[in-house]
From TrEMBL, chain A:
Keyword Nucleus in record: yes
Annotated WD repeat ranges: 416-457
Name under which the protein is recorded: Ribosome biogenesis protein BOP1 homolog
Molecular function per GO: ribonucleoprotein complex binding
The keyword Protein biosynthesis appears for this protein: no
Lineage of source species: Eukaryota, Metazoa, Spiralia, Lophotrochozoa, Mollusca
Species of origin: Patella caerulea (Rayed Mediterranean limpet)
One Pfam family it belongs to: BOP1NT
Start and end residues of each stretch annotated as Disordered: 1-123
InterPro entries: BOP1/Erb1, BOP1_N_dom, WD40/YVTN_repeat-like_dom_sf, WD40_repeat_CS, WD40_repeat_dom_sf, WD40_rpt
UniProtKB/TrEMBL annotation, chain B:
Family recorded in the similarity comment: Belongs to the WD repeat WDR12/YTM1 family.
Limits of the NLE domain: 8-74
Taxonomic classification: Eukaryota, Metazoa, Spiralia, Lophotrochozoa, Mollusca
Compartment(s) where it occurs, according to its Swiss-Prot or TrEMBL record: Nucleus, Nucleolus; Nucleus, Nucleoplasm
Stated name of the protein: Ribosome biogenesis protein WDR12 homolog
Origin species: Patella caerulea (Rayed Mediterranean limpet)
A single GO molecular function term of this UniProt record: ribonucleoprotein complex binding
Length: 758, 428
């Protein structure tokens, strides 16, 4: 292919040269035209087929090029031969003669293939396109001079641009001999004196030469061509052309002289520029071109081709037949109805029976129907629908398989039995040896995690709504929310030293004489000390609130804790400081029904979840920093990722929303796997896990990987549904908490059990 | 049996010389099961006029028990039927029989047998002494927290005043002396040093040292001497309670060596030899420590938190139970990381106790929260030899210190004893 392409290249360039030579005296040089176009115009000059469509021209063009290819191939084949051997001189001479006779240049003899010659009669335009017999071979511009004059030079003459035409390389005697021996066409290879190229004579050429040598008709066989009798033997009254020769044909043309002298003058004065010489760079550029460029359809035609066929008219069915089957014939009633429909334009015909087709009357609505059809086609824009052929499985995001995300809790291994009511809340100790639970049976129990043994039981006055173990491992404190008061308990489990130190710390409190607070502002809470028997049991402090407390939570450092009172209006959130035995109300205005509050694990932020929103307050600046729009009806619970940048929210409308605080205030991801209200959500402190507990008796554990790379969004994959709890009083699983170090989860159910899944 | 069933050449051999049969290959039908093979061997033995009537045999191929029909086994293992199969047979182990049940007042968290005595630690802070026939000898209000570990120090049956130690939630370890003649138990030494509950104890073979593992992640090595000059006399302030009970001054002992490294609580310790201790922890690792140099020698990473391990000095292997259903067999000598040699799966809940047999290096028992004690043969990982039911609640510990008795204690306040007529150790 490449060689063909390269060869195809050569001919147009030469033709351009020719054209430019011809157009030298034309005012507008054909700059705008392409290579191909020049030949087109050339051919059309002869063929007179300007009106014909492009495509025909193109075809012709290609033929033309093919011819040229052949030409060059031939020329290349025989390049080596230059010397005129005695054996061949006769042939060559005669060839020259013939060329001068029949056609002006040798070149054309060579190029012409026999088929084309015969086709001369039938395909005139084609012939003109490739036949340039009228043109001189202007590759060499020296003219008709004996070529011997150039014998001593390295060149043969000059081309149109005045460049030297170099003689082709000669082979030595040995090459000549080898060629003679090996090339079967050697005998009919001649060299073009003007160009020095080797030319392979075709069979026809040889035939012509042979004919001429025998003094026969050079063309050979066709002696009896149909005779076109221009000058008939019949006597004509009028001459073919009776016009006398003009005077102008005898004398030199003044006009021409004028024109030439004008040009000469213009050239002298520098007004008229000779055709610009081509720079070699340009030539290089043209050496490369897009091979398949022509194959591309132009943009305009492509648009034009985007033809959308009009929708097909429905073919008439049996009902439209002139002789429909009986069952298609409507009853009287139907006829009435159909008539109405016709009036409304809904249907067109009432099925009718005719004995023969010629009895069928003309269709009344024919014109209207045609008109409407045309109107439809004209007015209704048609558009091609691009339908994507997508496998639905590909649209599902690629999630890793759960077993690649281990460890996570999978099986129920331990049941903590002992409570006799709904367990509302559980809280593991920061070391993971114990877990505290608060129950409706008015007890708080401490369990040993490894065995499920209840180690201690604290009896309180009422139902326990919240239990929270102090997250500081060097303190042994549980805070319990019972009705309107918070109870601080030292459970006395674990390290004895820590327990006693905690007691010391609690007792070391001394009432600091605060500057007298304005008396009209009543204290938000009252702190009371337990004494004697209750102290021995482990009860330490009681913080009396004004309303019922629903939830209690610790700050990560273990000094501050917050309590929530949904009905407390402006005092619905209170923050307490253990060491200073102080309570404060961070908000002056009610924010709505506060569901739960949480401290940020690292920074001084407070998350406050109301019914529909989560507000994040900066405690240092005492300002609202963010407001998360939860998109759910009623928030039930909330958990903050240990990194602090992600929050999950569970709602009573069985949705779990994951918020990426860096990303947006809207949920990054919403999981709707539960069928009933969510009661609790929680994060694992070490493993990328989070879980949600619901009234549908299931706990769903999800893998929630948060990347430190800010560009990567969290990966959320549900990995396990844990079941085991039984329903009681319409409630299911009320709390779930992860073990602080192991990938285990504790769940507290309304059935009075705590279950451990590992 | 069908004439057309293919046969396979089998050669039978045994290490029990009283049951040996001629060393010639037999052609047995491939569909044969254990029962048929057993009767075949019996038939061969009858020929030798041995009195035993129908002794039951178990068969091993490539050190693995044959539990199914022979052809199934061969298909599973992809063993060619062309070659001569070498089948080892051993006498079928008779089933352990439930022997005794020792009822306590509270959950029994630990126990160990010795001679004909059983020592048990209880969640009601007491240690109890039993005879294996079921008589309760003594109840010792030993600790102020639940007792989590008890171990006999004296392994000499002649000794009339044996020593034992106990570890408890109250963070102390007590060394006790039981004066059998006076029927008294005296606390000899209180070992203080752990800051959390002491969960496991182990005594070395020479009874010179014992080590303890605790929830505070520390491994401590102590001297077992009942009295030594280095022990400090207790301060009067710190042990007022104890003084009330015993009304005598109990010396306090501090650890010889403390080794830290575990990231979570140590749940079990075992001596491998006089210098090496293996510990199992909730941080999913088994670590081997060199006591003399007080450093960690190697570490085996497990998949889950470990609860109990047992080491067999005769085969050098460690079995471990943890927070899943599988008992895993480890080789502590291997250095190429965590290599589970074998996993034994049959329990339904956490495995909290494992114990090798002291006489048969292929047998061990395991106890789980599902209330079943299982007797395993190391060569039969698919199924245990026997299930021993009886507990009505979680099992918390198992013990096989007395070769004839397998014992387990549980949350149903019971110690269950199963008698087991063991064979002589058949290993070479």
């Amino acid at each position: 292919m490449a060689t063909v392409a390269a060869k195809r290249k050569i001919s147009p360039v030469e033709e351009i040269d020719i054209n430019e030579g011809v157009n030298l005296f034309v005012d507008e040089p054909p700059d705008s035209e392409d290579d191909d176009d020049t030949t087109d115009s050339d051919s059309s000059e002869y063929s007179g087929l300007e009106d014909e469509p492009d495509t025909d021209d193109d075809d012709g063009d290609e033929d033309d090029e093919e011819e040229d290819d052949d030409d060059d191939e031939d020329a290349e084949n025989d390049e080596d031969e230059e010397d005129e051997d005695e054996d061949e001189s006769d042939v060559e001479d005669s060839a020259e003669e013939t060329s001068s006779h029949s056609k002006p240049t040798n070149q054309e003899i060579v190029t012409a293939e026999p088929d084309d010659k015969e086709g001369k009669i039938t395909q005139l335009p084609d012939e003109y396109e490739y036949d340039s017999s009228d043109e001189e071979d202007i590759r060499n511009t020296v003219g008709n001079i004996p070529m011997e004059w150039y014998r001593d030079y390295s060149h043969l003459g000059y081309d149109v641009e005045g460049k030297k035409l170099l003689k082709p390389e000669k082979g030595d005697e040995l090459d000549e001999f080898l060629d003679k021996m090996e090339n079967p066409d050697y005998w009919r290879t001649v060299s073009n004196k003007l160009t020095g190229q080797k030319v392979l004579l075709s069979k026809e050429d040889v035939k012509i030469i042979q004919n001429m040598q025998k003094f026969k008709n050079p063309v050979g066989s066709d002696m009896y061509e149909p005779w076109i009798d221009f000058f008939t033997n019949e006597k004509m009254i009028h001459p073919v052309s009776n016009r006398p020769e003009t005077k102008a044909s005898f004398i030199p043309s003044r006009w021409e002289m004028l024109k030439v002298s004008q040009m000469v003058h213009a050239l002298k004065m520098g007004w008229m520029k000779p055709t610009p010489t081509r720079k070699p760079d340009e030539e290089d550029e043209t050496n490369f071109y897009m091979l398949w460029k022509d194959d591309e359809e132009p943009e305009i035609t492509r648009q034009y081709r985007q033809y959308i066929p009009p929708p097909k008219v429905r073919l008439p069915g049996h009902a439209e037949s002139y002789n429909p089957p009986e069952e298609y014939l409507p009853s009287e009633k139907t006829v009435q109805r159909l008539k109405k429909e016709i009036a409304r334009g809904k249907t067109r015909t009432i099925p009718q029976k005719f004995s023969s087709l010629r009895l069928v009357p003309g269709f009344k609505y024919f014109i209207r129907e045609r008109f409407e059809r045309c109107l439809d086609l004209y007015l209704c824009p048609r558009q091609r629908k691009v339908r994507m052929n997508v496998n639905p499985d590909d649209l599902i995001p690629k999630l890793p398989k759960p077993r690649d995300l281990q460890p996570f809790p999978t099986t129920e291994y331990l049941v903590f039995k002992g409570h006799k009511g709904i367990i509302r809340t559980i809280s593991p100790d920061p070391k993971g040896q114990w877990i505290a639970s608060g129950c409706d049976d008015k007890t708080v129990k401490i369990w040993e995690v490894a065995t499920g043994r209840c180690i201690k039981t604290f009896n309180v006055e009422s139902k326990v709504k919240g239990v929270a173990w102090n997250p500081n491992p060097s303190l042994s404190i549980i805070v319990v929310a019972v009705e309107t008061s918070l109870i601080i308990i030292n459970p006395h489990v674990g390290d004895k030293l820590i327990c006693s130190k905690t007691d010391l710390l609690l007792n070391s409190f001394e009432e600091v004489e605060l500057p007298p607070a304005p008396t009209d502002k009543p204290k938000v809470t009252e702190w009371e000390l337990y004494e004697d028997a209750e102290y021995e049991l482990g009860f330490r402090l009681k913080i009396k609130h004004q309303r019922e407390i629903s939830q209690v939570t610790w700050h990560g450092k273990g000094d501050y804790f917050a309590s929530t009172m949904p009905k407390g209006e402006s005092k619905s959130v209170l923050i307490h400081q253990l060491m200073k035995r102080r309570s404060q109300n961070p908000f002056s205005k009610p924010k709505g029904l506060v569901q739960c509050v949480l401290f940020h694990p690292i920074r001084p932020f407070l998350f406050v979840a109301t019914q529909k929103y989560v507000r994040i307050y900066n405690l240092m600046k005492q300002s609202l920093s963010k407001k998360l729009l939860s998109n759910c009806q009623w928030i039930s619970s909330m958990a903050v990722h240990p990194g602090g940048d992600n929050v999950i929210i569970g709602s009573y409308d069985s949705k779990l929303s994951w918020f990426d605080l860096d990303l947006s205030t809207k949920p990054y991801h919403t999981l709707r796997h539960h069928t009933m209200a969510l009661r609790s959500v929680t994060y694992h402190k070490r493993y990328p896990l989070f879980a949600s507990a619901s009234d549908d008796l299931s706990v769903i554990v999800c893998h929630g990987m948060v990347y430190s790379d800010l560009l990567q969004n969290p990966l959320i994959v549900p990995v396990k549904v844990l079941r085991g709890h039984k329903a009681a009083k319409g409630l299911g699983v009320l709390d779930c908490q992860f073990h602080p170090s192991q990938p285990w989860i504790f769940t507290a159910g309304a059935d009075g059990t705590i279950r451990l899944y590992t | 049996m069908d004439e057309n069933t293919p046969h396979v050449q089998a050669k039978f051999y045994t290490k029990q010389s009283q049951y040996s049969v001629p060393d010639t290959p037999f052609s047995v039908p491939i569909t044969v099961g254990v029962e048929e093979l057993s009767s075949l061997i019996n038939g061969l033995l009858k020929g030798d006029e041995i009195e035993d009537e129908s002794v039951k045999f178990d068969f091993l191929i490539n050190e693995e028990f044959l539990r199914v029909a022979l052809n199934e086994y061969l298909e599973q293992r992809n063993i060619s039927t062309e070659n001569v199969l070498e089948i080892e047979y051993i006498e079928h182990h008779p089933a352990p029989k439930p022997d005794n049940s020792l009822l306590h007042d509270d959950w029994v968290s630990c126990l160990q047998g010795y001679s004909q005595y059983v020592l048990s630690g209880c969640y009601d802070n007491t240690i109890r002494l039993w005879k294996t026939d079921g008589t309760e000898l003594m109840t010792i209000p030993a600790h102020t927290g639940p007792v989590k570990a008890v171990k006999w120090i004296t392994q000499d049956e002649e000794d009339t005043s044996p020593l034992f130690i106990s570890g408890s939630h109250d963070q102390t370890i007590h060394i006790w002396q039981w004066n059998q003649e006076k029927k008294e138990v005296d606390c000899m030494v209180t070992c203080r040093g752990h800051t959390e509950s002491v969960d496991c104890l182990a005594i070395n073979n020479e009874n010179q040292r014992f080590c303890s593992g605790s929830w505070d992640k520390m491994l401590k090595i102590w001297s077992t001497a009942s009295a030594s000059e280095q022990d400090e006399q207790e301060d009067s302030t710190s042990t007022q309670k104890k003084r009330k009970k015993t009304d005598q001054i109990i010396p306090t002992r501090v650890p010889i060596v403390t080794m830290s490294g575990h990231k979570e609580a140590i749940s079990s310790v075992k001596w491998l030899n006089l210098t090496d201790v293996c510990t199992a922890s909730w941080d999913n690792t088994l670590r081997i420590w060199d006591v003399n140099r007080a450093l960690e020698k190697s570490q085996l990473q497990g998949p889950k938190a470990f609860f109990d391990i047992s080491y067999s000095p005769s085969n050098g292997m460690v079995i471990a139970g943890g927070s899943d259903r599988h008992i895993r067999l480890y080789d502590p000598r291997s250095t190429d990381g965590a290599v589970v040699k074998c996993a034994f799966t049959s329990h339904k809940l956490w495995i909290v106790g494992v114990a090798w047999s002291s006489t048969n290096d292929n047998h061990f028992i395991s106890g789980s929260h599902d209330g079943i004690v299982k007797l395993w043969d190391r060569r039969s990982p698919k199924a245990p030899l026997y299930d021993m039911t009886g507990h009505e609640d979680k099992i918390l510990a198992v013990d096989w210190s007395i070769p004839d008795l397998m014992m387990s204690s549980g949350a149903d306040n019971n110690i269950k004893i199963y008698s087991y007529s063991h064979h002589k150790n058949i290993s070479s």
